[in-house]
Amino acid sequence: GLMFYGFHVDHSNVVPGLQNLWIYDGFMPHGIAGLVACLSVVVFAFGGIEIIGLTAGESQDPKTTLPKAINAVPVRILLFYVLTIFVL
Fold first, then answer.
1. Which residue has the higher pLDDT, 64 or 17?
2. CA 45 to CA 35: how far, in whole Å?
């Protein structure tokens, strides 16, 4: 519930804008490490989407091949991740 309604904090004195880049210790006050960590996650996520497009472009019949591959993903997740818990 708090995620949807907030913490009931008064936000009337907060003004959005570009001036927030230079006030309150400026842009990246704790260094570039946070930006580098964020970029690695973004590049990894983009790579996943790019692989789908690349696969669709290189397959002979993408209308039948891609749905089969997409529908096989939950089965593989179940096999490789969930069922291996019982083995360990």
1. 64
2. 15
Tell me the per-residue pLDDT of 14-58, one tens digit each, with 9 for 90 and over.
777 888 778 878 788 888 898 888 898 888 888 877 887 887 788
Inform me whether the pLDDT recorded for 5 exceeds 70: no
Task: Please list, residue by residue across 27-63, b when 16 or more beta carbons sit within 10 angstroms of its beta carbon and e when fewer do.
Answer: eeeeeeeeeeeeeeeeeeeeeeeeeeeeeeeeeeeee
**Structure tokens that stand for 70 in this block:** 């997409």
State the pLDDT at residue 87: 82
The DSSP-derived string for the chain is -HHHH------TT---SGGGGTSSS-SSTT-SHHHHHHHHHHHHHHHHHHHHHHHHHHSS-HHHHHHHHHHHHHHHHIIIIIHHHHH-
How far apart are alpha carbons 41 and 6 in whole angstroms? 27
